[in-house]
Structure formats: structure tokens, C-alpha cells
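User: Continuing from earlier, I have the next pair ready.

Assistant: Great, send them over.

User: Here they are, in order.

Assistant: Folding the first of the pair now:
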Amino acid sequence: MYHRQRPLPVPAFWPGGHDHFEPAAFDGDLTTRLLAIDLYTDGAPEGTPSMATLIRRPPDAPAFEPGWAADPRAFVHHWEGGAWRWTLALWGRPLSLAEFDRVVGSMPES
């Protein structure tokens, strides 16, 4: 798969560090270059979000909203950067404004 041939676009900063990160693409589209990545699903340090999913899509692509989009326990952040629209879904707790700014600022320009 295409996403296995290139580094995944994940933030260089994450609250609690990267020790528990296990980024894995679970969906994507070669035509639009949409990419859906689980950043981690368990083992998060206490006080950090317990799960995190990152979605990258072009601005003109339809929203990618798997089942968690309707989960009332999910905290969802959206932003635009470069040629992409990004969605970050978290469980356990949302990012603070300072954390969110650092995460967004640490994203690669892919």
C-alpha cells in the first residue's frame, strides 16, 4: 500500500510523549490521498487522551467520518494546514488550547 512506502504524517509533539505511539494507517484513498491513521489505541500515559485518530484529506474531498464521528465520548478537533484539512479525534480528554497549538505546529508539511 502507498502509505507503507512513506512516513506517516504524524505530529512531532504529543502530550505525554511518543513512547506509546504506534501509528497505523487503517484507511486511505490513492486518488484523493485521504489518509486515516490510528495514532495509538492503548497504553497512553495517565492524564493524556486514551485513544487518538488522525484524518488527512484534501479540502475538496468529502468528510471522512467513520463510526466514531457519532460517538458522544469523542473529542474532535478540526483545522486546515497546507493543502489539507485535518481531523483529530480523541477519547479520554480533549487537548488544551496550548497542546492543540503545539500538535498542529509540529505536523509535517506533507
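And the other member of the pair:
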Amino acid sequence: MCTTKGVIKASLYLSLFIVSSCARYVDTVRSYSNGSAKNDFFKFYPDSNVFRYQSNVVLTRDTEKIYPKFFEVKLPKKIRYYEFIGSTDFSFYYDKGQTIFIEVNLEKNKISQDTVYNPSRDQLDEFIESTAQTGNEKYNLKAIPFNGNRKHLVMQRGNATILLYNVEDKNFDLFYEYISKFRFIN
């Protein structure tokens, strides 16, 4: 009898461990009355996410004040992890190394023309090494290996540079459509 109870107890603990250790998405929406949920930066919908960055933290360099730029971007579902460092580097990680990285240039004098291009491998490596800041070990853009069979894209929108990295063919059109809606807000 004690052995049976011990086996049942061990099975329950194992089941709880497996359930709690299963990979989860940070953007899961469950039975909300209006079909969405939100936190400080995200609004989660059943079919997409909207990330809206607004901050009242002013950066300083000597006596110069540098104000953050506010923006909004639509993102695909199934975000595994996200992070932002300062008011400049924003990373959104998905399954299988698919990543959206946004860099916002806070300098007033450097506004680039809107462009979209498919970067070469060398351009990608240079951009990731020189620009991307990340603080997490598991999800780190610099540690995700380049996959030549996937799609990569750089989009310039004013003072923002958006990188699609290692996006699977089947997901590319959706990722591209959503980041194309990037906009600065007041």
C-alpha cells in the first residue's frame, strides 16, 4: 500500500514538473471577454501582438539630455522571449531562432531614408556585432547561428532599423507585413 502511494505521489510530482517546464509563449491570450490582454508595453490579441514603447526616462550624456523616441509595431504571435535595453535596442525571439530586432537611433541629426533590403551575410554579421545589444544568455541574437536557408531583411524607417533574422519561409510574409506597420508616435 505504501509503495502504491509513493508511486502515485512520484507520478504527480513528475507530471507537475513536466507541465511547469513546458515551453510557453509570453503572448498567450486565454478567454478574455474582449479578446485581448495587455501589459505595460504589449497588447496581446488572439492573432497578433502590438508592442508600444513609451518611456519617460530621459537619458543623459554629460549635460545633454537625450529623449526616447516612442513607437508602435505589430508583431506575430508565439513570442518566446523579448527584451529591450535602454531606449534603443528591442529584441523579440520566436521558435527556431527567428528574431525581430529593432534599433532606434536617438540622435536628432541622423534621420535615414526609408529603405528595405536583403543583407548579405557579411552585412548581417557586421550589423549584429556592431549594433545589437542583448542581455540574456539563452535568447541572444549574437549567439543564434546564421541559417542560409532562411530569410533575412533589414528595413529602415526614419531613425529605426528593423532586422528580420532567420525567418522561416512560411512565416516571412506575415513577419514582413507586420513590421512594415512600424511607426513613430508622439
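Worth noting for the second one:
The first helix runs from residue 2 to 21. Residues 127 and 163 are 9 Å apart (CA to CA).
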